[in-house]
Amino acid sequence: MDNKALSGLSVVELGGFIPAPYCTKLMADLGASVVKIEPPGSGDPARKYGPFPDDIPKI
């Protein structure tokens, strides 16, 4: 049996961009089971941002 604080809890994440996924990542780290729901076709808007948008490093 898992002894983490949120084990046995299920979380559905409907948020987007950075704050919501970060929060649910913390919940998952504490043992919760997380299901992320994203818009069909486009996904979470944060997927278009990052260290290298379009996989092209800007040096």
Q: What would you say this structure looks like, in words?
A:
There is one protein chain. This protein has one helix and two strands. With 59 residues, it is an alpha+beta fold. The chain has one helix at residues 19-29, and strands at 10-13, 33-36. A two-stranded parallel ribbon has the order 1-2. The chain is 19% helix and 14% strand. It is elongated, with a radius of gyration of 15 Å. It has a domain at 1-38. Helix 1 (19-29) links the parallel strand 1 (10-13) and strand 2.
Largest sheet: 2 strands, parallel
Rounded mean pLDDT score: 85
Query: What's the end-to-end separation, in Å?
Result: 48 Å
Number of helices: 1
Overall form: elongated
Helix % is: 10-25%
* Strands ordered across the widest β-sheet: 1-2
Percent of residues in beta strands: 5-15%
Q: In total, how many beta strands?
A: 2
Topology readout:
Elements: E1 10-13, H1 19-29, E2 33-36
Parallel strand pairs: 1-2
Gist of the model:
This protein is an alpha+beta fold.
What attributes does this structure have?
59 residues, alpha+beta, two-stranded parallel ribbon, 1 helix, elongated
